[in-house]
Amino acid sequence: MKAILLFLGAALVSLVGVAGCDRQPVDTTPVSPVEAPGPRGIPDDSVLTTKVKTALMAEPDINAADIAVTAEGGRVTLSGTVPAPQIMRAEAVARGVEGVVEVVNRLSSADGGGAAPGGGTS
User: Fold this and answer.
1) Dist. CA 27–CA 92, nearest whole Å
2) How many CB atoms lie within 10 A of CB 75?
3) The model scores a pTM over 0.85
4) What domains can be seen in the chain, in order of their start residue?
5) I want to staple 71 with a disulfide (CB 3.0 to 4.6 A). Which of 26, 30, 45, 46 is the partner?
6) Mind listing the pLDDT tens digit of every residue in the chain (122 residues)?
């Protein structure tokens, strides 16, 4: 009887040990909502807007305070009035931000010129 109980105990321990073997490890690293991508790997619109605005502010030759930035599904729109040399530079900076799939440049020149050259969409 003792041998049977010992055998059943060993079998039970073996089954319990094997039962968890098919589970994959779970990554419990917290993901900040700021870094969490949306559909198709595109960051959330507010996150993308913030990333573009931050990139513009990091450029010493761009008056970022004069540029409004909006984003929708990876499409970033720049609008406002800045000196002419900043129009194309701001577009290039926005295009370089991860997650931006298109830039609509609606910036106009503070020097009296019109909107961005080339129709304003890139």
Assistant:
1) 36
2) 16
3) no
4) 32-120 (3.30.1340.30)
5) 45
6) 665 655 555 655 565 555 555 566 666 555 554 455 555 566 789 999 999 999 999 999 999 999 999 999 999 999 999 999 999 999 999 999 999 999 999 999 977 655 555 445 55
